[in-house]
Amino acid sequence: RGSSAIEAMQVLPEFEGTVVHDFWSPYFRYSCRHAICNAHLQRELQGITENFRHTGSESLHALLDEIRKTVETSRGRHMSSLSFEQQTVFMNGIARSRKRGRWRWGSLLR
Predict the structure, then answer these.
(1) pLDDT tens digits, residue range 47-99?
(2) Going by C-beta distance under 8 Å and a sequence separation of 6 or more, which residues neighbour residue 3?
(3) Which class for 82: exposed (0-12), middle (13-18), buried (19 or more C-beta within 10 A)?
(4) 110 or 84, which is more confident?
(5) What Rg do the C-alpha atoms of the chain give, in angstroms?
(6) Got the DSSP string for 6-31?
(7) Which DSSP letter does residue 103 get?
(8) Is 104 helix (H, G, I), strand (E, B) or coil?
(9) 12 neighbors 30 (Cβ within 8 angstroms)
(10) What is the three-class DSSP state of 52?
(11) What would the pLDDT profile of 10-55 be if each residue is shown by its tens digit?
């Protein structure tokens, strides 16, 4: 595992889709779109809450869990995506959590 292994496999250097991954920094060297794995993000938020008592991390963790459950329920109903209204509610919740926590997404990706 390492940057040299990624380069040797020649998958990510040419990839044009969205890569879902943990926070491992070598992934961010590639120009494709990035999405953080929800399980990894929730573990990071749990660590922030436990170790730093960061305002907002606990509420964001709960919101991400609610989003996950809503998506699972929607898939069980054979829906391909959440409604615009559901997406708006969740995005507003994320914005409120960010404001309460006074953080920027970039600070979570370092």
Answers:
(1) 988 898 776 788 888 999 999 999 999 999 999 899 999 999 999 998 888 77
(2) 26, 29
(3) middle
(4) 84
(5) 16
(6) HHHHTSGGG--SEEEE-S-GGGGGSS
(7) -
(8) coil
(9) yes
(10) helix
(11) 888 888 899 999 988 888 988 899 999 999 999 998 998 889 877 6
Identify the DSSP state of 99. Answer: H
Question: 90, 81 in Cβ contact below 8 A?
Answer: no
pTM of the predicted structure, to 2 decimals: 0.71
Q: Between helices 84-101 and 57-76, what is the axis angle to 10°?
A: 170
Token digits of residue 64: 């991400």
Place of tokens 């969740």: 90
Interior angle at CA 48, CA 106 and CA 89, nearest 5: 65
